[in-house]
Design a protein that fits this description.
alpha/beta; Rossmann fold; seven-stranded mixed beta sheet; two-stranded antiparallel sheet; 8 helices; 9 strands; 41% helix; 19% strand; globular
Length: 216
C-alpha cells in the first residue's frame, strides 16, 4: 500500500452521503423499493469503478434482485462472468450445512474479502439481506453477537459492508440491539453516524451477561 493509505481511494457514496472510515453499516428499510433506492447507486458506483461486489439475498428473491440491478443499468450476467459480482443466496452463505455458525461466517467474510484483493480488486462492497436470521435454524439466535463481533474483524478495513434489515419483520427490541452493533446506519434513506453504537468489547460483555441471567 502506498503512503497515502486509504485516502488514495476515491470517495465512496451511500444513501446521500460520502462514506467515511466507519464502514459496517445497518440499513433499516420499510420496503424493497426504499432499500433499492438507497443501495442501487452505491452498488453501481462500485461496479463502475471496477470494485468487487458480494451480494447475499433471500433465495426466493434472487430474480427480483437481478431485475432491480438491471433497472440501474447494471448487467449482472456480464459482471458475474468477469468475476466482479458474486451473488449468493443465503442458504449457501449462512447455512452451508443447515445451521448458522458465527465463527465460520466471520472467517468466510475475511477470506472472501481478502481473496478479492488477491484477485486484483482494490476494494469490495458487500450487501447482505439479513432476514435469514428469522428462519427456524440452529444458531440464528447468535445474530447480535455475530454483528458485534464483525466490528472486531472489520477494523481498518476499507471494504464497506451493508447489512440490510426489513423493519416490518423484526420486533423493536431486536432492532434496537442491531442498531447498537453498527457504527453507521441508513435510516429514512439517509446514511448517518450512529450515536447508539456500542463498541464490541462492551456489547459482547452485555450479551454474555444477558445469557447468563437467562440461564442459557
Amino acid at each position: 500500500m502506498n503512503s497515502a493509505g486509504f485516502d488514495s481511494v476515491p470517495p465512496r457514496h451511500l444513501a446521500g452521503a460520502p462514506l467515511g472510515s466507519r464502514r459496517h453499516i445497518c440499513g433499516f428499510f420499510r420496503s424493497p423499493d426504499e432499500e433499492y433506492r438507497a443501495l442501487l447507486p452505491f452498488i453501481k458506483e462500485g461496479l463502475d469503478r471496477g470494485e468487487k461486489a458480494f451480494h447475499v439475498v433471500d433465495p426466493r428473491k434472487k430474480e427480483d434482485h437481478l431485475r432491480r440491478l438491471r433497472t440501474a443499468r447494471i448487467d449482472p450476467g456480464d459482471a458475474e462472468r468477469r468475476g466482479q459480482l458474486e451473488l449468493w443466496d443465503w442458504d449457501e452463505a449462512y447455512f452451508p450445512d443447515g445451521r448458522f455458525d458465527q465463527s465460520r461466517m466471520l472467517t468466510t467474510w475475511q477470506e472472501v474479502l481478502d481473496g478479492a484483493r488477491s484477485d486484483g480488486f482494490a476494494s469490495s462492497r458487500l450487501v447482505a439481506h439479513m432476514e435469514w436470521s428469522l428462519e427456524d435454524r440452529e444458531g440464528v439466535s447468535d445474530l447480535l453477537e455475530y454483528e458485534s463481533r464483525f466490528n472486531l474483524v472489520h477494523r481498518a478495513d476499507r471494504d464497506p459492508v451493508v447489512c440490510a434489515y426489513d423493519l416490518t419483520k423484526y420486533g423493536g427490541d431486536v432492532l434496537i440491539d442491531v442498531l447498537r452493533a453498527h457504527p453507521m446506519v441508513i435510516m429514512d434513506g439517509l446514511l448517518q453516524e450512529n450515536p447508539f453504537f456500542v463498541p464490541p468489547e462492551i456489547f459482547l460483555k452485555e450479551l454474555r451477561e444477558r445469557r447468563a441471567a437467562q440461564g442459557e
